[in-house]
Amino acid sequence: MSRLILAGVLLAFSVPAFAGSFAGSSAGASSAGSSASSDSSSGDDKIVVQAREDAASFVASDGRIRGAQLEAALRHLREKDEAARKASDMQLAQAILAR
């Protein structure tokens, strides 16, 4: 079950690169008719990209080190994606690193 959630989160991360939008359904797919501008998706990506170092520290410390940028990215991802709301912090941090 957790692998399915992680796969959905990873899919949600990869969709913006191809569709130019971060808006996705609960399955992590992007709507081809999305009206989101590339600027807003770039802002979304920027929050997640900036959290990579914090995500690496979080994963390496088995969740003991929680940086501010990681916290912001986790909050942002959960606001935008249903699958991210169901994923653990560790699963999301690993997905950020796999991106």
Automatic annotation (TrEMBL):
InterPro entries assigned to the protein according to its UniProt record, in alphabetical order: CHP02448 (IPR012661)
Domain of life: Bacteria
Region described as Disordered: spans on this chain: 24-45
A Pfam family annotated for this UniProt entry: DUF2388
Keyword flag Signal: yes
Start-end of Low complexity biased regions: 24-41
Keywords for the protein's UniProt record, in alphabetical order: Signal
Secretion signal, residue range per the UniProt entry: 1-19
Protein name per the record: DUF2388 domain-containing protein
Organism: Pseudoxanthomonas japonensis
Source organism phylogeny: Bacteria, Pseudomonadati, Pseudomonadota, Gammaproteobacteria, Lysobacterales
